Amino acid sequence: MRGQLITPQKQELPFDLAGQTGFGPSILSPADLRKIVLKRKWILIVCILLGVIVGGCIAFLSVPQYQATASVDIDLTRSTNIGISNLIQQRLVGEDSASERLLTQIQIMRSDTVLLNVIHTLDLYHKRPFAEVFRKTPYNGTLTPKQRAALLQIMSGNLKILVLPGTNLVQVKFSNPDPVVATNVTNAIVDAYMERDLRARYEGTLRVSSWLSEQLNALKKQVQDAQQAVIQFQRKNDLVGTTTDGDSLVAQNLRTVNQQLAEAEADRIVKEARYKLAQTRNPELLASVAPGSPLQTLRQQQSELMVQYAQLKAKYGPEWPKLKEAEKQLATVQDNINAEINNLTNKFEEEYNAAVNTENLLHSRLEQIKQEAYRANSSEVEFEILKHGADSASDLYDALQIKLKEAGITAGLNSNAIDVIDRATQPAKPISPIKRLDLALGLFGGALVGILIALLVESLDDTLRTSEDVEAISGLPSLAVIPHFATSRKISTSGADAASAIDKGLVASELVSYLEPHSIGAEGFRTLRSSILLSSVDREPRLILLTSGLAAEGKSTCAANLAISFARRSARVLLVDTDLRKGTLHLKFKTSNRAGLSTLLARESGEEAYERPVPDLPNLTLLTRGPVAPNPGEMLGSRSMEDLLLQWRLEYDHIILDTSPILPVADTLSIAPHVDVAFIVVRAGITRKKALLRVRDQLLRVNTRLLGTVMNDVDLRLENYYTYSRHYDYGYKSYGAGYGAPDVQDAKK
Questions:
Q1: Closest Cα partner for 601 from 685, 667, 503?
Q2: For residue 610, how far is the Cα from the chain centroid?
Q3: Can you spell out the DSSP letters for 22-89?
Q4: How many Cβ atoms sit within 10 Å of the Cβ of residue 537?
Q5: Residue 293 gets which letter from DSSP?
Q6: Mean pLDDT of residues grouped by 10 in the chain (749 residues)?
Q7: Residues in CB range of 259: below 8 A, 6 or more apart
Q8: Smallest Cα–Cα separation from 62: which of 231, 173, 175?
Q9: Which of 17, 188, 194, 372 has a CA-to-CA distance to 269 between 20 and 30 Å?
Q10: What is the DSSP letter of 478?
């Protein structure tokens, strides 16, 4: 039957695949970490075992180490020195802070000098582990540079010096396989340090004393020169001693003249006022400022005469003789008053002039004394400077003489700032190895290394293992997840025909949809069937194509199980093996491969090419690939193939095409545009990311209605929503080898 094949329209995907690469950044969630651990569990187990073994070796094979501890109080601020202790301490420890000085003392405690002194004192040359240094060259009383460095390295490696926080307490700890040696070395280090500290302070005191002796000789001459310079300066500048009040003569004279000048100014002001009052010639005012003068009497006589004159004039008239006589008396009194006023004015003028002269003289004397005071002050300042220098030098000389006398005693009494709180005692048990801790650390370290290696391997692994990976990489929905199932001979089914199908040679053990219809593997294929049926609401897809990127990814197994799932719906199903190079459907259904699609396209066979491989599923028809064709690509792209597809559409409800992988050969691309739906089979742990992207792009380029992907052979423990695991093996390793070559198994048949 021949007709025109209707090509499905181009698929419109709900995903934006234009820039889809699938290699964007992702966040590692706890579920992803769980999947990685499950995938790489053997790496984790091996690393944990190795870690436990290493921890066990350390715990049980290591030499026990004993640690002795001594506590020392180093208080650098404490001192019982007398005399020059402050000077000595400054010269020995400087101006550093207390913490820095304490750290300095700790470094001195672990210095080579102290450690070598301990080694020599305790004769550690013949004790473990120091004796290992002299295994090749025995100790003969002297140390080579190499032996010396080795001994110091052993001492430093086993020595710990710790400062307890917030205190001056220092703990000295030393470890050794022998507890007695550990105790003796710890105490010897403390003793050697204390002896070295005391010796350093004693020698420092002696050095300071020697230095003081040298300085005193020079200082003595300096004191003598300073005192002589003071005496010469005093003579040169005529500086005499001070008064009992502490003032100099110049200062006392200046004070006296200044006081006299103030009094003279006050006297001049008073006399100037009287003189100006006299110039007014007011007898009443003059009488008030000169109470001892006759002016008061004359004024009184004048008043009495004026009264008499007024009475006489009023009684007798102006021509009365006695009135003339009264007038003469008034004139005489007036002349006397005027004369007295003149006398007083002259007197006040003379007194005023005398006061002005006195004031001027005192001003001149004050200025003269001021100049003398200025000169005296300058000389006294220089004198005081010289005198102070001489006094300081003399005091320093006296003090240093006292200190020098005390230095000998100080050298013996100089107390070190070290106090031993607890001397080391013999430890009761070793500090290492701690077996439980070593085993726990080995376990934890092995687990940590295992996780890191698993993450590293996972980052380098670009294979797809879960449906989430496939959807994230390809942008296509995952239609179904086919779990990993075992292809064993133990079939758990209620049908007697199905239970004996393998023994009778009807089907292969991979067809779980037929052999174990109630298994989780069969359920996965039923989920795929439902996804395909629900992909189109108007009509069910008829032509269904299964493909993959490379061989051995489970296309044939998925196609056969999917066909059985459709057949169990009482639908007419045709399963076609379009892989004309290496198709394997005839092996899965245990049928002959002499006639098939290749012979049908070559018109070498007819209806005999179609077979019904399973007796209890009569609605399932199988068309194997047939003998290997020399030109499979041209045959699948021929007009005959299009006619067959159209014919199958009319005769069957569902046609399932098991195709060849797309990346090795392009055979599938010839028929992909003509199918209703197509999906890509991805095998967990086998299919790579770039391969999936390449297959997707090639199918979309030829306008294939790409429905989604099928995740095959999945370890369901890696799926975040499922926790189920079984084991199986396809036995599909040789697929893909020798495309275009004759089938070896067919040749054997």
A1: 667
A2: 74
A3: S-------HHHHHHHHHHTHHHHHHHHHHHHHHHHHHHHHSPPBEEEEEEEEE-TT-----SSHHHHH
A4: 6
A5: S
A6: 39 43 57 74 87 83 82 70 47 57 83 86 83 79 84 86 85 86 87 82 71 69 69 63 53 79 82 75 68 70 75 72 75 78 78 84 81 68 67 70 62 61 83 80 87 80 79 87 67 46 64 87 88 79 91 89 90 92 89 89 88 89 89 89 92 92 89 92 87 91 91 77 42 34 34
A7: none
A8: 175
A9: 372
A10: E
Owner of token pair 């970490």: 33
Q: What is the pTM of this model?
A: 0.49
CA distance 717 to 483: 10
Q: CB within 8 A of 502, min separation 6: which ones?
A: 489, 491, 508, 509, 515
Those residues with Cβ within 8 angstroms of residue 449's Cβ, 6 or more apart along the chain or in another chain: 47, 51
| Identity of residue 568 | R
Crossing angle of helices 179-236 and 98-109, in 10° steps, is 130
Is residue 160 a contact partner of residue 173, using CB atoms and an 8 Å limit?
A: yes
Residue 173, strand partner residues: 69, 160
Q: Can you tell me the distance from the alpha carbon of 213 to that of 400, in angstroms, rounded to the nearest whole number?
A: 9
Residue 555, Cβ density class (10 Å: 0-12 exposed, 13-18 middle, ≥19 buried)? buried
H/E element, 459: helix 435-460
What's the rounded Cα separation, in Å, for the pair 117 and 583?
Answer: 87
